[in-house]
């Protein structure tokens, strides 16, 4: 397939792009970054690249962009400012929202205005859609929460659903993505390796996770498998409590699990965003049955060991 990739130049894209190329797909990657700043470590002659800031409506009139849109069989849209990298000031919340909502809205408007109907559109979202809870279990039928991230995900999905009529839309509500070189695990590993690791907060909050390889596998399968339509929770079938995640990580590294990170410190670092980590949510998928997708890493210990063995 000829694919247009938006927001696929960072932590997830580092594995997704090579995996897509291995499957024989032709790629055009769109980014506002210079090509030499991409985290994708593959030869530049293996894919097309366009530097375009998609947050500005006028840039969607770029002829190279429109030409590649017309020639694409599918679109993968994971665009958006990282959620947990900075403190949630009002300015940062605005950037987190606009980077997802505006760019996705401009994408759908451009497709319809130009009468472009890709076969499939894969759009990101997050399990933050459900809000946080220490006790509830959520699946694809559960209602949206009411906090900032829940409202953001709800808006993002509503905009994605304005896609062209004939395009198949798949929305992945993505859990905590695990791999050693980034995301939550990447931030925790250095602390654990020097023997100072421990659970965040009281450890009683749920972590609904997915290994990066399985997230990429889901995306690749959804491109061609028409069983994938609508919303799917991109989470492994084994959510765990934070205290158990911490113990498993310590065991895999042969390091103690002794020093919990106080919630007050996290609140100083992340502001309102700390709530997402300190309360968490238990999310499962009732749609990702084994016949649709067989997880490479269904269990946490295997996923962490695979991520840390190097």
Overview of this protein structure:
- It is a single chain.
- The protein has 310 residues and is α/β, with parallel strands linked by helices.
- The protein is built from ten helices and 13 strands.
- It has helices at residues 13-22, 63-70, 90-113, 148-160, 183-193, 212-224, 242-253, 263-270, 274-279, 300-308; strands at residues 2-6, 26-31, 48-51, 74-77, 120-126, 137-138, 168-174, 176-178, 206-207, 209-211, 230-234, 240-241, 282-283.
- Strands 3-2-1-4-5-7-11 form a seven-stranded parallel beta sheet, with helices on both faces. Strands 6-13 form a two-stranded parallel ribbon.
Largest sheet: 7 strands, parallel
Helicity level, as a percent range?
Answer: 25-40%
Residues in β-strands, percent: 15-25%
Look at the structure and name the CATH superfamily of one domain: NAD(P)-binding Rossmann-like Domain
């Amino acid at each position: 397939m000829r694919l247009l990739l938006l927001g696929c130049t960072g932590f997830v894209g580092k594995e997704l792009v090579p995996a897509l190329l291995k499957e024989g797909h032709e790629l055009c990657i769109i980014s506002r970054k210079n090509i030499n700043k991409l985290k994708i470590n593959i030869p530049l002659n293996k894919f097309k690249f366009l530097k375009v800031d998609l947050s500005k409506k006028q840039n969607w009139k770029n002829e190279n962009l429109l030409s590649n849109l017309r020639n694409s069989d599918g679109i993968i849209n994971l665009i958006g400012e990282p959620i947990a990298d900075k403190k949630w000031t009002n300015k940062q919340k605005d950037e987190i929202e606009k980077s997802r909502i505006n760019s996705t809205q401009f994408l759908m408007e451009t497709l319809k205005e130009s009468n472009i109907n890709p076969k499939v559109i894969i759009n990101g979202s997050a399990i933050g859609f459900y809000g946080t809870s220490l006790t509830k279990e959520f699946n694809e039928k559960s209602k949206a929460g009411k906090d900032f991230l829940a409202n953001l995900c709800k808006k993002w999905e509503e905009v994605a659903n304005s896609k062209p009529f004939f395009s198949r839309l798949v929305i992945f509500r993505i859990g905590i993505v695990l791999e050693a070189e980034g995301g939550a695990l990447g931030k925790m590993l250095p602390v654990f390796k020097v023997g100072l690791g421990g659970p965040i907060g009281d450890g009683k909050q749920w972590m609904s996770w997915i290994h990066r390889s399985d997230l990429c596998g889901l995306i690749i399968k959804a491109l061609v498998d028409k069983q994938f339509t609508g919303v799917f929770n991109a989470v492994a079938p084994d959510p765990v409590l934070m205290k158990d995640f911490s113990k498993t990580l310590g065991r895999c590294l042969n390091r103690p699990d002794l020093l919990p990170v106080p919630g007050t410190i996290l609140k100083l670092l992340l502001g309102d965003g700390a709530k997402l980590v300190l309360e968490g949510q238990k999310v499962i998928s009732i749609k990702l049955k084994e016949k649709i997708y067989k997880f490479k890493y269904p269990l946490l210990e295997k996923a962490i060991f695979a991520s840390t063995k190097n």
